[in-house]
Amino acid sequence: MTPPRVTYGELMDDARRAAHQGMNALARERFPDTSGARATVAIRAELLAEIGQHTVTVLGSTRVATWREGVPPRRCPEFRQPAVIATLAWIDTLIDHGRPHPVSLPTPESAVAAGHWARSLRLVRAATDLVATHQDARGAVRSGTPRDLALADVGGLLASATRLVNVIAPIEPLAVRARQAGMTPAEVEQALPLADRLLQDTYALEGALRFPMSAVTGLPLHRAPIGTGDPAVEWRERLDRVHARMHRHAQRSRASVRTLHDVATLGLVTSHVLTSSGLRDPATGPDLTGQWRAVLAHLAPLRSIERHDRVIRHDTERMLDLARSARTAGDPPARGRLIRAIDAGVPTMDACSGLADRLLAQTTDAWIPAKPHAPYLRDLHPPGTAARRAPPPEAQWPRMPPPPPASPGLDCG
């Protein structure tokens, strides 16, 4: 089975969680020795510098270079936007934090906070590498890159980085613990100066960008376009993409009812193919098909304001076409590979079903439109008040039964 795809949002959320754990460790206990304190100070500086480099990668090195080359000559008016100027100054501040300190990754045994921040550093680097897969050697966006990365504004690209900096920017906890561990006042002042305004500058930048939400949360690794040569490979890749987009809808806590209908249709077809091919018990097949039909009947009259996911709709229609027996009737080996791919994708299909079930239970954007009335009659209800709230589903979405156990016997292979 294809492993789950890691997204940019997952990496940056884990990095921020590790940074919080490091701050909590500072609040709970002292450093074991002076070397642990120095290691923690150094890893914090390296983490800030890495976030600065990460920001350049997310924004695009070409864009940042263009901003820097746009500095007006002396005594000429500044024509760049204030948000651009603030972003460049913020990036330079982050990178400057890492210059006085050597690059060193302390072991977690040296200090608990240093171990958490070292993990945060590795996650930020992984997020940088993920974004870099969508860019070529010149920094241009590759073909097939999601629009969220290619066309998002500055605020949507910097949201995750600024939130991470807000966690580790305060200097008071670390400075106090460093002095308790035996670092001299001169060392502490050089590494953690009281005049450091990184936290204030980060808040000011977020204010200039209007505190946006991240626009690249669901950004996965860049992969080649889905191949259409082998039906089995195409089925796996499209099912993985449907699952990734459903996971993104679950993070946003909203999805169109039409998208949920597409997922239910895919579940019905998957159940039918596995039952008709003999990979599932024929006695339970009709019951499972009836459950899927009940889900589709429940979703059929519902409407929602949220627009349907066109990618899931396209992938679902393509997968329904692949599942038709006439599609691979002339190639029995290809049909066998496709059925095995559908069977191997059952856990992913169940995960999509679970996400859809949870979204339907939590959504408030599911309603039944008003019944039509004769045009010559006056409508007694104001616009929108005749619609009815969607009833709760009668049962949870079905899951695929496990495959039958293999027959016992000696393996002579």
Which key terms come to mind for this protein?
413 residues, 1% strand, 59% helix, mainly alpha, 16 helices
Word description of this protein:
The chain is mainly alpha-helical and about 425 residues long. It is about 60% helix and about 0% strand. It is built from 16 helices and 2 strands. It is elongated. The two termini are about 25 Å apart.
> Unreliable segments (pLDDT under 50, ≥5 consecutive)?
102-106, 407-413
Query: What percent of the residues sit in helical stretches (DSSP H or I)?
Result: 55-70%
The end-to-end distance, rounded to whole angstroms, is 23 Å
Strand order across the largest sheet: 1-2
Short description:
The protein has 413 residues and is an all-alpha fold. Helix content is 59%, strand content 1%.
Question: What are the SSEs and their pairings?
Answer:
Elements: H1 8-28, H2 34-59, H3 61-69, H4 82-97, H5 112-132, H6 147-151, H7 154-168, H8 172-181, H9 185-191, H10 198-208, H11 231-252, H12 257-276, H13 285-299, H14 310-323, H15 332-344, H16 346-362, E1 367-368, E2 388-389
Antiparallel strand pairs: 1-2
Helix pairs in contact: 1-5, 1-7, 2-3, 2-4, 2-5, 2-7, 2-8, 4-10, 7-10, 11-14, 11-15, 11-16, 12-13, 12-14, 12-16
